[in-house]
Amino acid sequence: MATKTITMDDLLQEEAATGLENGVTVEGKVLSLKKHEALIDLGAQGVGIVPRREIGFNRNLKEGDSVTASVVETELDDGYSLLSLRKALKDRGWDVVDEIATSGEVIEIQPYDANRGGLLIEYEGVRGFLPVSQLSAEHYPRVGSSDKNEILQRLNSLKEKTLKVRILDADRKNNKLIFSEKEAVKDGLAERFDKIAVGDTVSGVVTGVVDYGVFVNVDGIEGLIHISEISWERVSNPADYVKPGQTVQAKIIAIDKDRLSLSLKQLQDDPWLSELEKFKKGSKVEGTVTRITPFGAFVQISPSVEALIHVSELGKEDADPEKVFKLNERKDFKVLEVDKENRKISLGLA
Fold first, then answer.
1. Which CATH number does the domain housing residue 225 bear?
2. Per-residue pLDDT tens over the stretch 90-136
3. pLDDT digits (tens, 9 = 90+) for 177-193
4. What domain count does the chain have?
């Protein structure tokens, strides 16, 4: 029996019969799912194979699902066609993205990865980015400036978490898509700001502890407790007083455009005022030198009261406080002035 010779015309006719060409869009149904690929039934056009990387993030396919794919290669060695769901999605996705960006609609996304700069997102087949600076107060990774690994850990905890965002910038020509969670929640924040006032006591969750204070999420509004507002006593390390995740009660002492200034210490009695009664002008006190500066020395004369002995009280115009005092030494002093209004006590040598 003679073997039929297959010509180039035969091959072209076969391709024309299937209707498959590189770059065309086809419809099909998921035939089977494997760890690294999916098989797509294209009906009379045969079977296509989609590698996992070409399925797209945040897509939970099931057998029998209808899909739209782009043909990458019409016929592989095994007879399958090579398909991409991501490319087909992206081609259509930019139309959707442009429409949403224009309308300002709030949408839901799920980050598929993170780096120290923010979250990586794929929406309608288009890759995008949500910068750290555009995260809401609830999710912003407030940590010390040197804790780079902790920033990444907190961002990684947001992977595959559903976030509500708005599109901040959509540039199809340069393939640039930027999301913002802050923009998505700002309408609700305006209503919440209307319900609070300076002097109110609010409850919030500590989201970060840094050298200069504590960040608190108050029902989606970011608040800052400056280090000077943590305690009536001198605070060296805010982490000694609160921890991330802790719920705290704080007083609103100022309302900025998009942030609250809060105070922990103003919900407590000021011990300075009660201890101040012990000190009268001209009386002698004993205290411990806590800080030495070029203009004098600070002295702790009670648990909550720190006083200053100015360099001018050391007896010489060119006196050097570092030669007169030693850190942590206890000495006797004389109270020169008590300024209750400005919370100052001036000392002289006894």
1. 2.40.50.140
2. 778 888 999 999 999 999 999 999 998 999 999 988 899 999 999 99
3. 999 999 998 878 888 88
4. 4
Pick 292 or 44 by higher pLDDT.
292
Is 218 part of any domain? yes
Q: How far apart are CA 246 and CA 293, in angstroms?
A: 36
Same domain, 275 and 262: no
Look-up: residue for tokens 């802050």? Answer: 182
CB environment 288-321: b (16+ within 10 A), e (fewer): ebeebeeebbbbbbbebbbbbbebebbeeeeeeb
Distance CA 244, CA 133 (A): 19
Q: How far is CA 287 from CA 2, 132, 264, 300, in A?
A: 114, 48, 27, 5
Please say whether the beta carbons of 63 and 30 come within 8 A: yes
Structural contact between residues 70 and 87, judged by C-beta atoms closer than 8 angstroms:
yes
Let me know if residue 17 belongs to a domain.
no
The whole domain housing 110 covers 104-185
Residue type for 119, please? L
Q: How crowded is residue 182: how many other Cβ atoms within 10 Å of its Cβ?
A: 21
The model's pLDDT over 154-172, given as tens digits with 9 standing for 90+, comes to: 899 999 899 999 999 999 8
Pair type for strands 118-123 and 126-131: antiparallel
